[in-house]
Each structure stands twice: as structure tokens, then as C-alpha cells.
Design a protein that fits this description.
single chain, mainly alpha
């Protein structure tokens, strides 16, 4: 494409974008929702995708999984049952420690969700 045609194409694209912005702004003003057209572009990516809540949910899920898994292991050991194909011995101190860590992580995730 020769240089003149490319410049003309760029100008027509720019004009089309300005027309869309104009009509969009006019419709928003008529509806009583006068917001700048670029409000989405001005938003923080974390806010736009909800990453704060997603991270808090992930932390809560990891903590809950630790609590459920270690709680089930402790319960099975106390009732005398053993998982099939289990290797090694049950270490109660480790299970109780990881249960406590899981509770701490789950409380942290839940508090983050409530605060956010």
C-alpha cells in the first residue's frame, strides 16, 4: 500500500473511533449514566479481574483442604483404619501440626474474604 493510502486509512479509523466515542457518550448522558468511555481502561487490572477475591478464595480453599485432609487422617488413625496401599507410618505430631497450619490459613482466607 502506498504511503498516502495508509495515512488515509489511519485517518478514517481514527474518525470512526471518535464517532463511536461521541455516540456512546451521548447515549450514556441520555440514560443518566454519564461515565467516561475509557472507564474500563482506567480500571486497575486487579480490580477488573477480581484478583483480590480470587486470591482470598484460593487461600481459604488450601487451608480447608489441609484441615479436611489432616483431620481425616487423624480420625482414621484413631479409629484404627489405614488407607489401602499406604506406605510408612502415621506421624501424629506432623498431622496435628499441619491441621493447625491449615486452620490458620483457612481463617486468614476467610477473614480476607470478609474484609475485602
Amino acid at each position: 500500500m502506498p504511503n498516502g493510502e495508509a495515512a488515509m486509512l489511519d485517518r478514517s479509523r481514527t474518525n470512526a473511533i471518535h464517532q463511536i466515542d461521541y455516540w456512546h457518550g451521548l447515549i450514556l448522558r441520555l440514560c443518566g449514566k454519564a461515565q467516561p468511555v475509557s472507564s474500563v481502561a482506567a480500571m486497575d487490572m486487579t480490580e477488573l479481574l477480581g484478583l483480590d477475591d480470587l486470591l482470598a478464595q484460593f487461600i481459604l480453599a488450601v487451608g480447608a483442604a489441609m484441615v479436611l485432609g489432616n483431620g481425616a487422617a487423624i480420625w482414621m488413625h484413631q479409629t484404627g483404619r489405614r488407607p489401602q496401599k499406604a506406605q510408612g507410618e502415621f506421624r501424629p505430631a506432623r498431622a496435628w501440626w499441619l491441621l493447625g497450619v491449615g486452620i490458620l490459613i483457612a481463617v486468614w482466607g476467610g477473614a480476607s474474604l470478609l474484609a475485602g
